[in-house]
Amino acid sequence: TNKPRIVILGAGYAGMMTTKRLTQKLGAEEAEIVLVNKHNYHYQTTWLHEIAAGTRNQNQARMMISDVFNPNRVRLIYDSVVEVKKDEKRVLLENSEISYDYLVISLGFETNTFGIKGMEKNAFSIQDIETSRLISEHIEYQFAKYTLDPKAKKEDLTILVGGGGFTGIEFVGELAEQVPKLCKKYDIDPSIPKIINVEAAPSILPGFNEVLVAYAKKSLEDRGVEFRIGAKIQECKKNSFVINDGEEVKAGTIVWTGGVTGNSILSKSGFEITKGKVTVNEDLRAPGEEDIFIIGDCAWVMNKEEGRPFPPTAQAAMQHADTCASNIKALLQGGALESFVFDDKGTVASLGNADAMGTVFSGTKLYGKSASAMKKVIDNRYLFLLGGPRLILKKGKLRPF
Ligand code: FAD
């Protein structure tokens, strides 16, 4: 058959929702849909801080892709993308290659250490299921060996988190919950372990309302988190950060959450890059490309009102997917392409399982248990969009606290 082939690279929020929408918008005879992903499972990137802290089992945060899409309807290829040869309309994978008529690049983010000396080598990062699981295993190992190893030092139980943005703060919130549990499990005096968050800017959570920031900071401090704000990390050594004028903060676990950028496959494939991502047209196509869409954390989408790009979020990635699928349909069936319009539904940051803060519905502030419940509603809503009530029952956050 000569059906046009749509290839989607990356099964994150953007890739999964684009595939879902395409299966809804297009008949099976209209196009062949191919989804390429590194793993045979899809994971919830927005839950990775919970996996990294050890407060949630990794299996709840992931699902088999073939449980969501019928492999007869969507061709599933589990392989790693190596490079897009856009002039030849094909994609090189680690073990094979595939040609396309329409391409969607939704390969997500990569950690960015901004060249801080030693950071890439010595710090863990919250990137995917595997790197996140490694962090919780490493922390638990530090606790498990503390009472056994005569050479163990108190600072082995310190967890140092670089970066006080959204991910860093959500992560220390989970740690504040997990550390007391580990103390109980391994009979360790709870006054020994420390959780220290280091942020170079004058405040944590840039972009959040200052009342909400103050709430988050106090909630976390009350549960033992220490903040070093306005502290510039000069170097990451094997077991420490060197900050400001040379002060050394020691730890047994170091996690960098201070920066992300677009997937490096973009630059490898010859796209024009701005700060690690491609600035896309209003219809979400790459500049100068008729048949390539770039969405999710790989794309800068301009907020014309503010003259700068929207921040990368799962919320935006899912909305990109709607526009992208509609525009592919328009390309196939004829008709005008639509421009992306962001519908900001607010942002809620968790501070552990039972506390959160954020804004919803054009600016209403939420705190504490109600915010935490709202956060779980947001997480479950995504599962509903993807797989209906069945997926919520299987993978949802069903216990309120
Ligand atoms: P991803 O979800 O990262 O998916 C990319 C996919 O591509 C992955 O499945 C990956 O395996 C695959 N892939 C990567 N490279 C290759 C390759 N070479 N070959 C094949 N496959 C590949 N946003 C919110 O809106 N709300 C939140 O509360 C929130 N919380 C967050 C908490 C944490 C801890 C983190 C890290 C992020 C959070 N974000 C949140 C941001 C949000 O997760 C991202 O904006 C979102 O995941 C972007 O979606 P995406 O589809 O572009 O990328």
UniProtKB/TrEMBL annotation:
Pfam families: Pyr_redox_2. Keywords: FAD, Flavoprotein, Oxidoreductase. GO terms for biological process: aerobic electron transport chain. Coiled coil: none annotated. Residues 5-321 form the FAD/NAD(P)-binding domain. It comes from the Bacteria. One of its GO terms (molecular function) is NAD(P)H dehydrogenase (quinone) activity. Its cofactor is FAD. Belongs to the NADH dehydrogenase family. This is FAD-dependent oxidoreductase. It comes from Virgibacillus phasianinus.
